[in-house]
Amino acid sequence: MSASSRHQPPSTGQDKSHAPSQSVRQALMTIGDELRARSPWLVKYQNFIGSIIMFFAVSMMALCGYAYGQGWLNALPTILIIAVATSLIHELEHDLIHYLYFRKHPIPHNLMLLICWLTRPGTVNPWIRRRLHLLHHKVSGSHEDVEERGITNGIPWSPLRLLMIADGTLAILGRAKEAYKAKRLHLLLIRGFVAYFPIGIAYYITWYTYLLFHISHAVAPFWAANLWPSHLVEVMPVINFIAVVFMWPFFIRSFCLNFISSNMHYYGDVENNNIIQQTQVWTTWWLAPLHLFCFNFAGTHAIHHFVVRDPFYIRQWIARQSYPVMRKSGVRFNDFSTFKRANRFNDTQRNEPEHI
Fold it and tell me: What percent of the chain is helix, strand and coil (3-state, nearest 5)?
C-alpha cells in the first residue's frame, strides 16, 4: 500500500476533478510523501502528535486563565495568548473533521471534538460542521456551499458584511431579509439554533449580556445602575472572567479566521471540480497579525483543498515547497482585487444569488 493511499481520509468528492487540478494534487501529495519518507515518525505518531498539541493548547488556556485570576497576568496578554492557543485547537478540529486523528478509535476522537467545542464555545457543533465542511469540499465556490456562505462569502462588501464576519448571530440575521423573501426564514432560524445548541446559544447569551451591561454603564452609568437586576450584578465578576478567558479570545480568533476564509475562497463563477479556482493563497507580510490568530490559514488552506489527508502542521511544513507548483498551475496569490468582485474568480457581471 502506498503512502498516499494509506493516509487518504474518506472521499470529499474531489476525485472527479479535471486533469489540471489532479496534476497539482498529485504533485503536492508527492511532496508530502517525500516528507513522510524523511520523517516516518510523522506517520507513526500522528495520533500522539494531535493529542500533544491539544494538551499544550488547553494547558496554555488553563495556565493563562489561572494567572489572570490570580492577578499575575493582565487581561490583554491573557486574551491574546488564549486566542493563539485556540487557533491551534481550531486546526485540530479541522483535522478531526477529516478523521486525521483516532479515525478507528471513536472515544478519543469524539472527546477531542468535544474539547474543541468547549474551548471555542461560539462555534457550530463540530459534528454538524463536519457535514457542512465535507459538503464545502464537494461544492466549493457554488451556492450549495453553506459553510462559506455562512461566513459571508459572495456578499458584496459593506459594513453589514463586516459585522456578519465578526459575529455568528449577526451572520444569520444578516441573511434574514433574503430568507424572508424566499419564504425560508423559519428554516434559517431553526438551522442556526440547532447548529449552535446548546454551547453556542449559552455563549451568545452570555456575550451579549456582557456587552450590553458594560456599554450601558459606559454610556449612562446612573441609568444603568438601576437597570440590571441585583443577582446579575453579583455574578458579573464571574462573567467578566469568562469574557477574558473565553469570549474575547474567541471573538478575536473567529474574526481573523472568518475574514480571511471568506475572502480567500472564490465564489459564484467557479467551475465545477476545478480546485485551482476554489481558493487563492495569501502570503503578504501585512496579514501577519491576522494569521497569528488563525495559524497562517490563508497561506496553507489552498493546499488542503488539493490534499485533505495532511494535518495542519504538515501543510505548514511543505507550504514553501508547494507554492511554485501551485503558481505554475494557475493558483492565484494575493489576489486582493477579489474584494471588489464579491469573491468572484472572474471580473464579470452576474446575478447575485440569495444568501440564505
Answer: 70, 0, 30
